[in-house]
Write a structure and sequence with these properties.
There is one protein chain. The chain is mainly alpha-helical and 516 residues long. Helices cover 86% and strands 0% of the residues. The protein is built from 17 helices and no strands. It has helices at residues 3-36, 39-60, 63-76, 80-116, 123-148, 152-210, 220-258, 261-274, 278-297, 301-328, 330-338, 346-371, 376-428, 434-452, 458-478, 487-495, 501-514. Helix 1 (3-36) runs antiparallel to helix 9 (278-297), helix 2 (39-60) packs across helix 5 (123-148) and helix 2 (39-60) runs antiparallel to helix 7.
Length: 516
């Protein structure tokens, strides 16, 4: 198989493995805190998450991706002074924005906790969110530098330090009696340790190796030009990031307004579990952007069609069986991961996972739009989806609780998916592989029926998943929905399995033999 045909799969696998490891840390955090805190205490933590995510995104201002872009750009042409100045100027900017964001959080915490939610127990955790922002945005700046120098190992170490120390400090503080406030403060301390570790890595692997000269301070006018350049790149990024948070977390905010605190905890964990299908979609979406851009620049319609069709088949064939398992066994999954007290979260989980499949399709479609030179349109559709989610959440959550929140998010992601698919079809003049996708959906529906034949408990989850996946794979192959060119994705995955490779290779050969 040609390098071009394997490029999408190869890039996706590398990103996928890192995403799985980091996502696992998040699940361990939720797994432990769900058991250390009461459902109400964990609900309080859940209510702070939208503010944590939104403030970190707003304070970062999309600057880390801008840092990565311009550091890589100037480093490529050996403009060491400009690299240094990009880092210095962006760091000043982010510290200033972090101060503003932390101040805003302190100001709004009481009106939100007392005025809007009428939940005074949430006030202190919301105030503690302000401590997270300064550390997190400076860490974000350093990660942007790592990315600009293509130092992905240090980028991974930085995120790993954040996760492991957040878990350690959160557990200790909860155990000594700080309750939900301890979990939030643990996150702040986790970012502090990540900051210290990231700075050490920056000094060791970048500052001492690449930026060895001393530079004079540039005039204010020149620094303002650099700030303008950073803002120009960052604004669409931050708008997109905040709009995406609205897609994920609008339900949590309105649950805090209209429902008991414990339901926020149920919904927070259901939302996290529903995003498992996004792990693959994120990896494919990251790889398809440069691939689509390459095919477009070469004016190679056949190559572009192959990339588009592969992306949709990869995403559908891998995410739909995961969605089927989560949908049918939502209650035992919530019990298994978070304890029996969180089983009511299944009411939202089985709906949300459908919405996350729609969002998976949106992610890869938006990346292809960006690769074809239309980066603004996915941002506009994300804003539209966020507005739909806000309106639907406001209308549905008072009467239907977490199920209403899940349905509102699902409707919003469906709107996103439809709008971006229509735009991509217009841009590329390539239609979806409707026939192949129809076959995959049919195999998925049959798999759902098979799963329902097993008891809805943990034993049924294990047995049903094994049988259901086998049935699904055989149906996909029998329908010829998977193509031989697609099998390269599986080959790359198997290559990463070490000693298991010799056992899995015959299965890959079987799939290749029976692929369309």
């Amino acid at each position: 198989m040609s390098d071009k045909k394997s490029k999408l799969a190869s890039g996706s696998i590398i990103i996928l493995l890192g995403s799985i490891i980091l996502r696992l840390g998040g699940f361990i955090y939720r797994f432990i805190l769900s058991r250390l805190l009461s459902t109400t205490g964990y609900g309080i933590v859940g209510l702070t998450l939208p503010f944590q995510n939104a403030l970190i995104t707003a304070a970062s201002g999309g600057v880390p991706p801008a840092i990565a872009k311009y550091v890589a750009e100037y480093n490529a042409i050996d403009e060491e002074q400009m690299v240094h100045q990009i880092i210095v100027t962006s760091m000043k900017l982010m510290i200033f924005m972090a101060f503003i964001a932390a101040t805003v959080m302190l100001i709004i915490s009481e009106p939100v906790a007392i005025g809007m939610w009428n939940k005074p127990e949430v006030l202190m955790p919301l105030r503690l969110v302000a401590l997270i922002v300064p550390f997190s945005v400076i860490v974000g700046a350093l990660r942007g530098v790592f990315q600009g120098y293509y130092n992905m190992l240090d980028l991974f170490y930085s995120k790993f330090l954040e996760q492991i120390f957040t878990l350690i400090f959160a557990v200790i503080l909860v155990l000594v009696g700080w309750y939900a406030s301890g979990a939030v403060l643990g996150t702040a301390l986790g970012f502090l340790m990540a900051l210290l570790g990231s700075y050490y890595l920056y000094k060791r692997d970048i500052r001492d190796k690449f930026i060895t000269n001393e530079f004079k301070k540039i005039p204010v006018r020149e620094e303002l030009k650099i700030l303008g350049k950073l803002f120009k790149f960052a604004i669409p990024v931050v708008i997109t990031g905040i709009a995406e948070i609205f897609i994920y977390d609008t339900g949590t905010f309105f649950i805090g307004m209209f429902q008991p605190v414990m339901l926020a905890g149920f919904y927070t964990n259901a939302s996290a579990m529903s995003r498992i299908p996004l792990i693959l979609a994120n990896s494919v979406s990251t790889s398809i952007l440069p691939a689509a851009s390459e095919a477009d620049s070469l004016k190679d319609k056949e190559l572009l069609t192959m990339y588009i069709h592969q992306s949709y088949r990869y995403t559908a064939v891998t995410t739909l069986p995961v969605c089927a398992i989560i949908m049918v066994y939502a209650a035992p999954i919530m019990t298994l991961f978070f304890g029996a007290d969180y089983a009511p979260g299944s009411e939202a989980l089985w709906i949300l996972v459908t919405g996350m499949f729609f969002f998976s399709i949106y992610l890869i479609t938006s990346s292809m739009c960006q690769g074809l030179g239309k980066p603004q349109f996915p941002m506009y559709t994300l804003i539209v989806g966020s507005i739909v989610n806000i309106i639907a959440s406001f209308l549905l959550i008072p009467d239907y609780g977490i199920a209403g929140a899940a349905f509102a998010t699902t409707v919003a992601t469906f709107v996103l998916m439809v709008l971006t698919i229509a735009k991509l079809t217009q841009l590329s003049e390539v239609h979806l592989p409707y026939k192949d996708l129809g076959k995959i959906v049919l195999a998925y529906l049959i798999m759902v029926v098979v799963l329902w034949l097993f008891p809805i408990n943990i034993i049924g989850l294990i047995l049903g998943s094994i049988v259901g996946l086998i049935v699904y794979l055989l149906l996909v192959l029998a329908f010829k929905a998977l193509k031989k060119d697609d099998v390269v994705f599986i080959e790359h995955l198997v290559d990463k399995t070490g000693p298991l490779k010799k056992y899995l290779t015959p299965i890959v050969s079987f799939i290749y033999k029976h692929a369309g």
